[in-house]
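Methods: example folding runs. The two proteins below were folded one after another, and each record is reproduced exactly as written to the output file, sequence line first and structure-token line second.
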Amino acid sequence: AKQPYNVSVAAEVAACAALQNPLYLENVKDALVRERDRLFKLLKEVPFLNPFPSYSNFILCEVTSGRDAKKLKEDLAKMGLMIRHYDKKELKGYVRVSVDKPEHTDALMKCLSAIQ
């Protein structure tokens, strides 16, 4: 059976090396938490998004103001940015934005501003 997440040999070796360096892992975690907090604050400023607090590496946002979540995903994809939307009725009208590097957050916010 296919595993839920396929990992290359190189990624597996890198992960094993990272696990041997707790200071590195702590620094990566701290950077992720800082960027998640910054992304959340910025998403709250977007008039057609309602982000939910997160303790994960992504932020779930309700798409509001009559906007369509799938169209938002498609519009951002045309600009080179990928987010996830959901077709299932429980999450219809929501998108998921992954936490990434600060420059990726900046690019996302620039594209969201262009859509407004």
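Second run, written to the same file directly after the first:
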Amino acid sequence: MPAKKSKGVSEEANRPYSANDISSQLHGKVSPNQAKKILNDLADDGRIQRKANGKQQIFYANQSDIEVPSIEEAEEEEEKIKELEERVDALKSNNKSLVGRLQGLNSALTDDQMRERISKLSNEIKENDERLEHLRSGEVISPEEKAKIETEHAAMLKHWKARKRMFKNISDAISENYPGKMKDLFADVGVETDEDVGTDTAIIAAK
């Protein structure tokens, strides 16, 4: 049985092995000395080949016993290998894209945080817009106060647009693989868009 296993290891890999290699491949079930004796016996019987490599002997399968594929078979195998390599490259590229998308989603706000932030910013913008409209109606204020109000209004509008872009990027990423309509998904999770509440940052910015 050890001789059969030793011969099998050599034939299966079809590469040179030392006695230590065979012992290692058999997970220590055969000691290096036992493997060396078995391999030498097999070589003496002509069942494997033996060659001196300096002070060490190496053993390998009889090449006459190895089935050599035809040119057609070799070309077919090369084509299969090429197809597999292309599939591996495509999978690597897709995996890289998915990892990047996942990292972007993980770094974004949660749905609850986003809804809370949008609600807060919307209220602040509404209050500032009402205040600014009231002041533009003719109330006398100092240039400094007016400039401060307009600056705060512009800052809030900027935050609104930034959050809107962030939300759009996330929703676009989700929509690529979501089987249903995004409008239905928004309704399920309680998301209200600017269009749903009749709000437009472009109109507000133009005021």
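Comment on the second run: The two ends are 91 Å apart (CA to CA).
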